[in-house]
Amino acid sequence: MIAAYFERLNETQGLNFSVFYDAFDQGRFLTGLWTTSYICVVAIIASLALGLLGVWLAGSNSRLARILVRGYVQFFRNTPPLVQLSFFYFAVATLLPTVSDGFGGRSPLVSGTGWAIIAFSLFAGAFNVEIFRAGIEAVPSTTVEAGESLGYTRLQLYIHVVLPLAFRICLPALNNNLINLVKTTTLAYAIGVPELLYAASQIWSESFNVREMMNVLLVTYVLLVAVLVFVMGRWEKTMRIPGYST
Amino acid sequence: MASRHQLGEPVVVVAGVEKAFGALRVLKDVALTVRRGETVCIIGPSGSGKSTLLRCINALVPISRGSITVAGREVNDPALDKLALRRDVGIVFQQYNLFPHKNALQNVMMAPLHVLKQDKAEVEARARMLLAKVGLSDKLATYPGELSGGQQQRVAIARSLAMNPKVMLFDEVTAALDPETKKEVLVTIQDLAAEGMTCILVTHEMGFAREVADHVYFTDGGVIVEHGPPGDLFGAAREERTRAFLDKVL
Amino acid sequence: MRVSATDLPVLLPYRAPAAIAPSGLAAPMLLGGGTLACFAILFGASLALAQVTARPAGESAATVLLRWAPLIFQGFLFNILISFLSMALGTVVGVLVGIAQVSVVAPVRRTAWGLTQFFRNAPWLVLLFYAMFLLPFEFNVLGLTIAFPAWIKAIIGLALPVAANVSEIVRGGIRSIPSGQWESAESLAFNRRQTMWMIILPQAFKRMIPPWMNLYAILTMATTLISVVGIQDGLTITRAALVAESRPELMIPMYLLLLLMFFAYCYPIARATLSLERRFNVKA
Q1: What is the pLDDT of residues C168-178, one digit of tens each?
Q2: Are the Cβ atoms of C8 and B100 closer than 8 angstroms?
Q3: What CATH topology corresponds to A27-199+206-239?
């Protein structure tokens, strides 16, 4: 029924929303949506892990580890993500060996999608390190002192007091960063990863419906972000401490 | 008011303690002895090192020189078992410092569960009893953010008591409270003292000190200017500095 | 002496840090220097590697790099130019939309809010495509044909998300001024427009500067997106250079050179943002 409506719309108004009635275009679009979601989910998880690892190293006793973390954070925060992605995909990839693709040819060890995930995880991870540390620093020293006076060890304090509080404190900033990550995945277009933007561009260059596809694309991304905002909002709510907000 | 109960052996002995933060010397040759069951109040102008002294007793702040023993344990010893010390010494802070992500009952239960690894059912029963004792039986599931200052402070007292301490330290616990809620906290402490708990209070509540304390210390500029039973100190202070301070606050 | 029940810092509403958190690890200049040094070492090492692995007949890697460096730098300067123009356009539009977001007229307020949210949550690259493809290549005003070259469309495309973010910054800044200021201005017979421009905005201005600078740094880094839609910028030239030389061992030093340029430009901005933030927080 939806397909019929959009087909009629194309015939009568000349508005060609091919993704809604053309099975081929629809398939491509959905594959793009799937790839984007896949990159998002893996990169979000990896960036969170990187953030935790970074904040742990930044708090370690090793001077070298601290300097490395600082360097990592500053590098990825203050250079363009697109150039980072190009650097990985075009430059670093040349250093890696190729593997046999099973058909007598050679294919790169890491695919474009793989590089996109690596680059975006490193990019978002750098921000996560800062966010987590700000959260930990925001836990009042007096609360930590209270825990100490009750005989908690450093580790116990972190597990039972500091991290649960720090996590709640940094959740809003974390949400922002993860939303930003979803938007950043469009850059994978530049290295030919068949994600949503790439799929849409293929469709509009073959079906000649730039205007319609562009709007579909924008709305899709805004919806994607809205879903994430909604999920994180719900999560924030369940994590809320009574009496926490004013 | 004279001592209402038999005083026991010394629990806290502070001798010749010095504490310096960089060039700033906040404690100079401080000495005091607190016996089991005794209630001691430390009074004096702000910045005279009173709170630092309490933190030193609890090993939250290391001392620069001298010796502090708590229940026969030397606090300045590098090999000190801090866990054992902190089990013996409870401290209640001016800003309550409850754990905001746990409700009242959980706040009281946390340390015995995590630090002492006691049985959960026993801990819970004891926590309920302690919260009843401070008059908060109806607030077990309430979070700190939803409690008034006085209620939070009473939860903090119960939290410290849950560790079964030999001595309780109170660091200006009523300074952040309004007059009505101050009273409920002071009554709680008075009950504790009457039960024979050893208490050291840093306080600005002169009426309370006069009423409840067995012994009062007046500190100024990092030294103990004079000390004695409340009747002597409040009635007939020997030192000019003490008299000037009391004139100002009373 | 009354202290509210929530005077624990952790219970107060959390304000997300707009930029880098205070490091507390070492002096900021030292850190920047350290990162730069790491960069330089990495760059030098990759160059040396390129030198060693180069085909025997070829020019030395350093020579090739030196030949291209001025061109890449010119491309980088074009990125900076685009960032200035987009920021200017985005700021003008964003301030107006931001003020509309606190309008007393409900339809104006809601429309401004909707626009802001939409353009803030859309990916920058998609908005850039949007501007590139859907804006006409020439305008016809009163019979006068004005050409609309690609780079101007790119500026507009980048200005869209900038405007939406500026709008949020302005709204946040205005909201941060206590309502007592509005009331006292009203009681002094200022009208709403006078109150906004003479009393509220001057006070809010200070608080808007750090997030605005942060946004500028983000925009500068986003200007490389124009290479994706076929405008020649620093990244395009870097790629072209690599294609022209077709020497894979130069890939890493060449890209690092470009990254270095952006870092040298954006890192000081990030530091300045942070120090301004701290200074204003102390005063506030």
Answers
A1: 999 999 988 88
A2: yes
A3: MetI-like fold (1.10.3720)
